[in-house]
Amino acid sequence: MTRAVVVGSGPNGLAAALTLAKAGVDVEVLEAADTPGGGTRSSELTLPGLVHDECSGFHPLAVDTPFSREFDLAAYGLTWRWPEIQYAHPLDDGRGAAALRSVEDTAALLGPDRRAWSLVFGPLTERFGSITADFLRPMVRVPSHPFALARFGVFAALPASVLVRAWSTPEARALYGGVAAHALRPLTTLMSSAIGVALATAAHAYGWPVAEGGSAAISRAMIRGLETLGGKVVTGVRVESLAQLDEADVVMLDVAPRAAVQIAGDAMPHAVRRALTRYRHGPGVFKIDFAIDGEVPWRHEPSRRAGTVHVIGDYDELAHAEREVARGHLPARPFVLVGQQYLADPTRATGSHRPLYAYAHVPAGFTGDATAQIEAQIERFAPGFRDRILARHVRTTQQLQQYNPNYVAGDVVTGANSARQLVFRPRPAFNPYAVGIPAVYLCSAATPPGAGAHGMCGYNAAQTALARL
User: Entry's PANTHER family (predicted)?
Assistant: First the structure.
């Protein structure tokens, strides 16, 4: 029987393992940490009974993909839960904006920008299934749905600073700016609209769901599915060289590009080694998990019902903050993302105590303490928030890298979302998963389609391996 070893048990490593195992390959997953799951781990980080997502918290691109359709993870215990409001953006005077599942209902709340929001996101939402069929795969290929992808590409190719001009009100501009900021790059750069357009459209097409019981439920379901196919996961095993895997017929590396170079050693061709060594990582995040008593007292009432809240002022303040982070400076008022997963999944809370997820965008490798800035930003839009804090759990950029070595210098999306790397990720190649060594493949979020708990990087890489087999 063909034997495969997967290095790393994040959602991409596990997706690769499932795909290979279903095809009859004998699969073993090796994980350096004591707990599997990579970016889909959850723990009681603050108080007993409060479940916190340690990294990935919301999963808009995971609910309808080729991987999710082939592997019914619900059969292994995964249940998706949706908040009433997918994401919100409060403003200083108590106003703000909120994204609902319906394009029309969202647009209706945007006053003069109603028509413009519908014109951008209405047609994209209707065709999003066809669009994702193409952008969840490598971009260097003939698209299956060229016209739908072209419409998406028209908006995705623009700098966010250009697309935002489609809207005139502070509310609509902020609502779009908040999702565009997920790119973790200056909003004036080419293709800085791409991730914002994808996430905003996904909110209407699929919502921004959470996994019941925490994101760890995703990896638990994948592991159960793998075990039913005869595969297994072994924790506490650090792979430092391909020599440790010399009995494997196929090797899948769910690691960052430079880690792949180190593991492969001299077996990797010089040109591939050079390209992967030059792969760029982006800014980092500084994460705090709070235990709070009661709800966050947002002045903007819809934010009290939103799964995700983008916490910063208007679009101009947001653009300034992202520009400063890219220059290596922590802004006085950084972009803060707050996750209220317990609104969709009350099993994560206990009594009046709630788990609250928050991180700020910070420069790569930031060595300072952003706690004061994060709390000040939340307090700014939710007066009285500090009085509700019961406990904190802090992770710096360095601690995030220790938690998951793929998060180099706190880069939780495993690579800068520059225009070049959005298209040619992790290097220009017809097969971006190949590393120049027969039967060895890279399958982490550094490969197409990028970050997220969708598992598509691993699924695509495994399909490449199976085609060769």
Answer: DEHYDROGENASE-RELATED (PTHR10668:SF105), PHYTOENE DEHYDROGENASE (PTHR10668)
